[in-house]
Design a protein that fits this description.
The complex is a heterodimer.
Chain A (H helix, E strand, L loop, with lengths): L3 E12 L2 E12 L2 E6 L6 H9 L6 E6 L2 E2 L5 H6 L2 E3 L12 H10 L16 H13 L15 H15 L3 E5 L10 H14 L3 E5 L3 H7 L2 E6 L2 E6 L1 H6 L1 H14 L1
Parallel strand pairs in A: 3-8, 3-9, 6-7, 7-8
Antiparallel strand pairs in A: 1-2, 1-4, 4-5, 9-10
Helix pairs in contact in A: 3-4, 3-5, 4-5
Chain B lengths: L1 H4 L8 H15 L1 H4 L3 H27 L6 H18 L4 H26 L4 H21 L1 H4 L5 E2 L11 E5 L2 E4 H24 L2 H11 L1 H6 L4 H27 L1 E2 L1 H4 L2 H14 L4 H28 L4 H6 L5 H15 L3 H9 L1
Antiparallel strand pairs in B: 1-4, 2-3
The chains are: A alpha/beta, B mainly alpha.
InterPro entries (chain B): ABC_transp_permease, LivM-like
Main location (chain B): membrane
Subcellular location (chain B): Cell membrane
Chain lengths: ~250, ~350
């Protein structure tokens, strides 16, 4: 078995009487892409929020490369190698595309505390930011304000910010949501590349079945906050419990 | 060279460049261009308030933190110089020690306030600063054995900087200690202004902007938001205190009305908003405009009222006593037409 990078043990959060994530225990390994699926309201994004630290846990623990990070702040988790992209685009709208990526790189360098040097004079940061932007094909838009970018390009930048952080654990929350048919492949190819080239683990919340089929090594299914299935994509998709939890709910929606 | 001095943050607009140059040359040559006690006093005020407004903009415009305690920090610097000169004897050592002590006290206060309130919502920080600033203002007016109470106190500055120190004439202008004092204040203000410009364009300054734009994401990419906000608050407070020291040095007097009053706080807010939040240049433009308006609007209106004496209503409206009304009108118009401030507008249109 390959190394465990991220593990949740009995992870639980309650909002009042409602249990949003119910004792989820799961380990994520290096070089593995895990798709997290489940109907709307199953607790996927809440599970992400617990792992990355946006909301405090009620019970259970999160560990990153063997260290307990349950009580650490969001920024400290990020420094230790936990990177997250958001479902709703969540960038620095008034700053340029390049500045957004540079800030992500700078966060993990010594220069961040510098008060008296010029930000523009840190060439290594700029060069690295440009190479990240080339990968997501936003290099020609480097000086645009983020608020002026199309939705699809904002999604790409969201992924670029994550690559710039260069974490051990990548967490993508519906990275292609709202993207056009011809834009989505750029992001999906990138995720495939990341999976191939780096010894990292990738968590992917996704609704699109074709995406899951091509990318995922493993699927876990959340339903009403609990982990109801975990395993090989083809097997999990075919199992009854998933059909009930997922498709049953979707039929009910119609 | 010049670009490095300006931290690559040039005015980036022809009109703005001209405006900034006019302000700079006007202040640099003030004693020769506008002779007279009153105009020199106005020039010194402009220089000092540019620094004060720039340090406030570091908080309000760059970090997105609203503070009402900025005049308190300003006052700490002023009282620092005043008390040191009063008790340690006149001399440059008192001024330097007083300034440093004032700046250190301001930074320490800022650190405590930030630590207790920046973790929670921004509005809470604003309320806390308001409360602390009011408390300090009351304290200063009550502790009259130390601070001179409501009256404040005068003190002596080094002889070299006094009007009695005559050194001859140049271009028909008497060179004396007062002039020397003016250039000391001008130079210090210029250095502090360039320092502010450098800080906002440093990696640290970029993080502040990121926090202003989206503190949630700044935290998520690995920045400790509370820490950055705290450092920015301390830095801004210390700079405000240094501006206060310069003001005390110029006036040779400290008192609640000239340094701690809430009116100055509001003026400061106006300077930053009219000039353009989030641009240090905006602070320079806003401070210059407001100080000029405060000093000369009344004169201007006086002469306008005399000129329109035959029109009953208009001359009443233009009475010098109504100058605050017109300042208010100017403020509303400027916010309406330049929501991003004068500098934002000039940079936007190029």
């Amino acid at each position: 078995m390959t190394q465990v990078l991220l593990e949740t043990d009995g992870l639980t959060v309650r909002f009042g009487g409602h249990v949003a994530v119910d004792a989820v225990s799961c380990a994520f390994h290096a070089s593995e892409l895990t798709a997290i699926v489940g109907p709307n309201g199953a607790g996927k994004t809440t599970y992400f929020n617990l792992i990355s630290g946006q909301i405090p846990v009620s019970a259970g623990s999160v560990s990153l490369m063997g260290d307990d990070i349950t009580r650490l702040s969001v920024s400290e988790r990020c420094k230790r190698g936990l990177g997250r992209a958001f479902q709703l685009t969540n960038l620095f709208p008034g700053l340029s595309v390049l500045e957004n990526v540079r800030l992500a790189i700078q966060a993990h360098r010594g220069s961040k505390a510098s008060l008296l040097t010029l930000a523009d004079s840190h060439h290594a940061v700029t060069v690295e930011a440009m190479s990240v932007l080339e990968r997501v094909r936003l290099d020609t838009l480097r000086d645009q304000a983020v608020s002026e970018l199309s939705h699809g390009n904002q999604r790409k930048l969201e992924v670029a910010m994550l690559i710039a952080i260069d974490p051990k654990v990548y967490m993508f929350d519906e990275p292609t949501a709202g993207m056009s048919v011809d834009e989505a492949p750029v992001v999906l190819d990138l995720i495939a590349e990341l999976k191939a080239e780096r010894d990292r683990t990738i968590l992917l919340v996704e609704h699109k079945m074709d995406v899951i089929r091509t990318l995922a090594d493993r699927i876990i299914v959340l339903h009403n906050g609990a982990l109801v299935a975990d395993g090989d994509p083809a097997e999990v998709m075919a199992s009854d419990v998933v059909q009930d939890a997922y498709m049953g709910k979707e039929l009910a929606d119609v | 060279m010049l670009k490095t001095l300006l931290s690559n943050d040039t005015p980036r607009s022809k009109i703005l460049t001209i405006v900034v140059l006019v302000i700079f040359l006007g202040l640099a040559l003030a004693p020769f261009l506008f002779p007279g006690v009153r105009s020199l006093d106005t020039a010194a005020r402009i220089a000092i308030f540019i620094v004060l407004a720039a340090s406030y903009d570091l908080l309000l415009g760059y970090t997105g933190v609203v503070s009402f305690a900025h005049t308190m920090f300003f006052g700490m610097g002023a009282y620092g110089v005043g008390l040191a000169s009063l008790h340690m004897g006149r001399g440059f050592h008192s001024i330097i020690i007083g300034s440093l002590a004032g700046a250190a006290l301001a930074a320490a206060f800022a650190f405590l306030i930030a630590l207790f309130s920046l973790r929670v919502r921004a509005i809470f920080f604003a309320m806390i600063t308001l409360a602390v600033a009011s408390a300090v203002a009351v304290l200063v007016s009550q502790l009259s054995w130390l601070t001179g109470g409501e009256d404040g106190f005068t003190f002596k500055i080094p002889r070299e900087l006094g009007p009695a120190n005559r050194m001859g004439e140049f271009l028909g202008v008497k060179i004396n200690g007062k002039l020397l004092n003016y250039y000391l204040i001008f130079t210090c203000s210029l250095l502090l202004f360039l320092l502010m410009l450098r800080v906002v364009n440093s990696p640290f300054g970029r993080v502040l902007q990121a926090i202003r734009e989206n503190d949630f994401r700044a935290e998520a990419i690995g920045y400790r938001v509370v820490w950055y906000r705290t450092v920015a608050t301390c830095l801004s407070a210390a700079t405000a205190a240094l501006a206060g020291s310069l003001f005390a040095l110029w006036l040779r007097y400290v008192g609640p009305d000239t340094t701690l009053s809430f009116t100055i706080m509001l003026d400061l807010l106006l300077m930053v908003v009219i000039g353009g939040m989030g641009t240090i240049w905006g602070a320079a433009v806003g401070a210059t405009l407001l100080v000029l308006a405060q000093t000369y609007l009344q004169d201007l209106m006086g002469s306008a009222a005399t000129a329109t004496e035959f029109l009953p209503l208009l001359s009443r409206l233009l009475d010098p006593d109504r100058w605050l009304l017109w300042l208010g009108v100017l403020f509303i118009l400027s916010v309406y037409f330049f929501p991003t401030g004068i500098v934002g507008r000039l940079r936007g249109s190029k």
